[in-house]
Structures are given as C-alpha cells and as structure tokens.
Amino acid sequence: MTTGFANALAESVWEQRYRFAPASGAPESSIDATWDRVARALAAGEPRDREHWAGRFREALSDFRFLPGGRILAGAGTARRVTLFNCFVMGTVEDSLDGIFAALRESALTMQQGGGIGVDFSTLRPYGALADATGGMASGPVSFMDLWNQMSETVTGVGPRRGAMMGTLACEHPDVLAFVEAKRRPGRLTHFNLSVLVSDAFMRAVEVGADWTLAFPRFGVERRVAARALWEGVVQSAYESAEPGVLFIDRIRAEDNLAYAETISATNPCGEIPLPPYGACDLGSINLTRFVREAFSPRAALDLRALADTAAVAARMLDDVYEVSTFPLPQQAAAAKASRRLGIGITGLADALAMLGLRYDAADGRNAAAAAMRTICEAAYAASIELARERGSFERFARERYLAAPFVQRLPQGLRDGIARHGIRNSHLTAIAPAGTISLLAGNVSSGLEPIFALEYARDVRRPGGAVERVGVESHALAQWRERSGDTPLPPAFVTAAEVPAEAQVEMQAALQPHVDNAISKTTNVPADIPLDEFRAIYRRAWERGLKGCTVFRPNRVTGAVLTGPEPRCERCEVAPAP
C-alpha cells in the first residue's frame, strides 16, 4: 500500500478517481504528489506571493485535513478541459421545443466537462396543454426529463462516476403528482434526484386541511386539490421509493444572502447549494477527525483555533478556483463570478464525536458539532472580508442590502462591521455536502454530517490491472480506538446510523443549519418497518425546525436495502468527465 493511506480502500479511491496520469509520462507516485499538484494549481490564482500560498495550501491538504471537492482534486493542475466546479444549476428552461433542446444541449456540455447539474422543470407547460405550433397536446415536464436522463446516460455512462442531476418542480404545477410518482417505477430517471419545491403556504394548507390550487396561468390550466391528498402522495412515494425529497423553497429564498439580486428554483444534485440560473458550486470539506486532541481521553477536545485557521485557508483556496478553472458555458462563468459562492463544510463529524466521547444522538454531541460549524463559518467570513480588502468584493455586492440579509444580520457584530468597511469577496461561504468519496480517501471517515454507517464492513476494491479484491474496512474512529486500546470494549459514544433515531438526525441538521448560509445535504435513514405516520412526521419536524430541505430513506423495493452507506446517495455529485 502506498505511504499515506489508512487502508487499501483509500488507496483504491485515489488510484481510480484522483491520481493524475498524463498521456505521456508516469502517473503521480503518491498522494503527496496529488497534494502538491492541487496546491500549486490553486496558488496560481494568487496575484502575488504564490510560493507562500502554495505552501499554506499544501499544509491544509496534508494528512487529509482539508478535502477540496472531487473535481478540484481530479482536475486542478492537469491541463485537461474539465471544470473544477462540482455542480451547476442550469439556466431557465424556455417553454418551447427550441428552448427545451437548447437547455438539453447546455446540460450535455456541462456534464461532459464533469459538472453535475440541477434543472427546474416548473417552467414547462403541463400534460395536455395545447402545443403552440402544432395544436397538439403537450407531453408535460416529466416526459422531457426522460430526455435528460438518457443524455446523462450517454454522456457520462462510462467511467467511475455516474451523471448526477437534480430535477425540481413547484408544488403548484399541475403535473406535480406525476413528478412525485415518476421514480416509483424501478429503472426510471435513474440519473436524477427529485425534489418538490414546497412553499410555506402549501405546508399551512396541509396543516389546516385546506384545498390547494394547481395552476399554469399561461394556458389557463387551474384546478383545486386537497392539500393533504397531494402531501400524502409526496410522503407515500418517498416511503416506497425514497423519492422525491422536498425543498422548503420559501425558506431557501428568504435566507439567501443575495435575495435582492436573484431568484432560486433549484439546487445542485445533492441539495447543499441552492443556486440561481447558471450558478456553480465550489466545494470543500474540513475533516474534523484531524482536529481532535487527546482522543478517547477525559481531556479530549476539538482544537477550534486550528479549525479556524484551516477554514480561513480553505476560503482562500476555493476563491482561487474562480481564477484557475474553466467553465463549460460563458453564462456559467458570468453568473458564478458575480457571486463567487463557496461551500466550506465538514466531514468526519460522527467519527470525531466518538473520539471526543460524545454521542451523535445526544445534546452535548450536537453542541460540539454546532461549535465546530460556527467556528468554520465565522473564520470563513473573516477570511472573505480580508480577501475583499485585498481584491474587491463580488460583483453583485450591495453593501446595505447584503447587510440586511437575515443570515448576515445574525453574524457577530465584528464581522458585520468588517463587511460594512471592506465588503466581502464571496456572497456565501458554508455548505455541508455528502463528501462520500473524499471521506473514503481520508481513511473512511464518516461522510459529511452523517452518523457512522457501520463500524466494520467488507468492500470490493479494484486493484491495478483490474483484479477485484474484497477487503475489510473499519470506521476511522474504530481504527483509532483499536490502535490505542486494542480489543478493549468500545465506549458508549460509538453509535451507528441504525442506532440513531430519525428525530436525532433531524436535530443534528437543525443544530448546524444556523451556521450554514447555503444548505445541508442530509439523508435521514429509517428502518424498513417504520410506520407511515412516523415517516410522515419527519418532514413536518424538518419544516418546523427551520431546515431548508428534507430527504428520508427507507429500504424499499425500488432502490434496494442500502441507499446511504459507505458511499452515500449523493456521492453521485462527484461526476466524471466523458472521454
């Protein structure tokens, strides 16, 4: 096994996904060579002191402390025609055949360069509406989603990663029930995650048992349905097929730092970055396990100062991505640079909590997680203010309107004063992504903010030459415990996903949301025998607790027994370029 990897699985992930092998010459010899390549490539975005910043970036990457998004790790410094942005939301789909196929073409070009996409199909006329040119009947938005799915299969169907797409539809669209039920048939729309854009008005209508209007005014389509019946369709479909999720769109828009300059109707494929048309997500995760001091002892603690230092460097690294990356489309370059959004998040949370002696499903575990995320958020905002002082603010920065945004108003006064004085380089700074594959690379740390999937499991690993070997894999915290304590019985802090109640999973997400200006990708895992009433209540609790979205997975006949696990559902966000 190459030096620097915790296990054979981590090495295999590096070899297959992130190790650069030029067309002529030797491939990278070690993970250190990968870190060197990425650090130098991002430091090229610095206007001065590039050697200094390459060193700082290299230090942040070492020992897997900061894990940039998969597109950055795979593409930075390779000179390949790929984007370093993991995902995009595509432009508004025009309700015409020309507009639909123009949007499909843009989506294909984006996925070809390695970007996952989000598409809002709410602009397309419903099934049965008259077609303008022919007088025939429209087939509805769900039928056109099949075209996107086939495109994704064609463009990204070869290679280690599948194409990743998010499809959204507004809860007032007349075809919303067809959208909700689209994936109950096994094998359909397999490259899509689906989310209904759920408004507060709809949730209130469900609460009081009122009717709900489905309408597409341009064609005079309007009908009334029982809000609870529609909601029941959403819940029942998710219960049976794990789709769709819901996005609480009014909350997303109200909490958007740039609500004065944009309207959001979609997210990246995993939901952690709500974006305007042509927006891009620039992601990275801080590995909390590397900041635990004196693990498993009574003195165990998170080194918050070191965490803040790494978050500040991470903000600078990700801002430099805008300087060195290409974009599949010029519209994406313009939209992305107008806001310079970043998504700095965490991974390894559950392992870190076990190392601290804190249970994931207890209040002290949530408090520690919130303290870590608050530290990251405030350090990232401070770094972005300093970057604005050096280089200027993002293009759409309007001082008073930005400072009036709800999230910005809740920042410490010192940060608000800094924004007022110097501006800010990036409109948004934090997001929590699934971080599936990069967490395996870091030694099988728990992904994102998810609980530990399993303490031990077996995994097939493809070795050089194509041979497949089954290897045993331990959770990072378990490996650390055994190194320290051998076969001594595990302390109570070691809890796995199957032991964490749904309510506790929602509460963990709610504890971190106040420190996340974008959003959080989290799948609430529940057992197959959960009663439907309890399943339904999870969505209500998520809305009441102020979350921006909710996805719940129950083992089912459509998606199988395991959807989130060693590589979670939204690992699909890390898509590969087509050859």
Question: How would you characterize the overall build of this protein?
Answer:
With 579 residues, the chain is an alpha/beta fold. It is 41% helix and 14% strand. It has 21 helices and 19 strands. The chain has an eight-stranded mixed sheet. It has a three-stranded mixed sheet with strand order 1-12-15. A two-stranded antiparallel ribbon has the order 6-7. Strand 16 and strand 17 form a beta hairpin.
Q: Give me the secondary-structure category.
A: alpha/beta
State Rg: 23 Å
Widest beta sheet: strand line-up: 11-2-3-4-5-8-19-18
Q: End-to-end span in angstroms?
A: 29 Å
Low-confidence stretches: 563-579
Mean pLDDT: 93
Proportion of strand residues: 5-15%
Topology:
Elements: H1 8-18, H2 31-43, H3 50-61, E1 66-68, H4 70-75, E2 87-89, H5 97-112, E3 116-120, H6 141-156, E4 165-170, H7 176-180, E5 192-198, H8 200-208, E6 211-216, E7 221-226, H9 227-241, E8 245-248, H10 249-254, E9 266-267, E10 274-275, E11 280-281, E12 283-287, E13 292-293, E14 301-302, H11 304-324, H12 330-339, E15 343-347, H13 349-356, H14 363-391, H15 399-403, H16 406-409, H17 413-422, H18 436-441, E16 456-462, E17 468-474, H19 476-485, H20 502-512, E18 523-525, H21 532-544, E19 549-553
Parallel strand pairs: 2-3, 3-4, 4-5, 5-8, 12-15, 18-19
Antiparallel strand pairs: 1-12, 2-11, 6-7, 8-19, 9-10, 13-14, 16-17
Helix pairs in contact: 2-3, 2-11, 5-6, 9-21, 11-14, 13-19, 14-17, 14-20
